Amino acid sequence: MVLNDPAFYRDRYPHYAALRAKAPVLPVPFGGSEAGAVVVTGHQEAREALAGAALSKDTTAYFADKESDRELHPAIARNLLTTDPPEHTRLRRLVTRAFTTATVQRLRPAIEALARKLTADWAPGREVDLIEGLAAPLPVTVICELLGVPEADRDAIGVWSAELFVTGDHTRIDAASHALAAYMAGLIAAKRSRPDGALISGLIAARDGVDAPLDEHELLSLAILLLVAGHETTTAAIGNGVLALLRHPGAWQALLADRGRVPAAVDELLRYDAPVSIATWRWAPAATVLGGQPVPAGRPVFVCPGAANRDPARFPDPDRLDLDRPDAAAHLSFGHGVHRCLGAPLAHAELEITLRVLLERFPGMRLAGPAEELTWRHSRLFRGLTALPVLP
Fold first, then answer.
1. How far apart are CA 320 and CA 346, in angstroms?
2. pLDDT digits (tens, 9 = 90+) for 149-180
3. 193: buried, middle or exposed (CB in 10 Å: 19+, 13-18, 0-12)?
4. What is the total count of domains within the chain?
5. Is the pLDDT assigned to residue 68 strictly greater than 60?
6. CB 255 within 8 A of CB 246
7. Are 384 and 376 in contact (CB under 8 A)?
8. 272 is in which domain, residue-wise?
9. Beta strand 288-290 with 300-303: parallel, antiparallel or unpaired?
10. Of 102, 228, 267, 301, which shows the fewest CB atoms inside 10 Å?
11. What are the strands, taking DSSP E only, across 285-360?
């Protein structure tokens, strides 16, 4: 399968284009099984797959009759991302208010203050790693503040999160899932004794209330998901977006000349180099048709937002970064339909604010070395840099 090619991690877009040229919905070998899987690379077809009820995200049902040597903690194996309506609807409703546009608007001053604090010691001409110094700590700090995670614990959170999403090593992933679940169970117990105004205390109140819309497993799994799901993708989005601008000096200069263009530029940057390259697991419980292609019952379906965002049938000249692209917001980097990213308004704001601070404080920023020498994470799910050395 082309997705196993090491070159895929360096630049996956030619591989996606090759798949799409065969068919926007394409059967492919997968996991040593004769049945294989289906890869979706077309924009229209990806929207259909993401929004439609024909595909399921219920991984428990999919793997119920399959042998596995995995030891992933149950609170991570089954969570909001691995459920279908109506269960998904019930769980999502409990946390939606924390990520509305109005809520994020109130957070913007704090996000900007944090971006300025993280870059306060950056000196023009002195090399820094933008990922380590800004793109990674900013979103993890914001989500930890929202949830009420103590500052002293945040470095450990970052390590466990990276183990879960980036390593690709099942043993390390499973171990990190148990470490993170044990930590969160302890934090929930502590906040039961000493409630605060943060989001985890709100979930505990819902769990322990008269109507009890959550059971204890759901409380733990939801708290873990909120903690780790958003900040890895936002870190990747910041790194990918800044790299794209620095590789296109005309675009950087255009934003310097008119900072009012930054919000629209964020959507084009998310389209151009999506932080989520392949969406989380979906499968067909019953035989269906997707983009004219029959999908047999039981078949895994890999929807690729990174490929859909470069579909020439939807975005003319898709491999060109175009800050004036009128339909850039039609990208699928946040997904689509009932499973659209809950934290999309927050992630969009974090990327926008980060760019504004960088443009203001470091107008002459440039890459510290050749872009071709940058290294990318070996993750099918995420598209993100391991480091981004820049000269502010």
1. 26
2. 999 998 888 888 878 876 667 888 889 889 99
3. exposed
4. 1
5. yes
6. no
7. yes
8. 2-391
9. unpaired
10. 102
11. 288-290, 293-295, 300-303
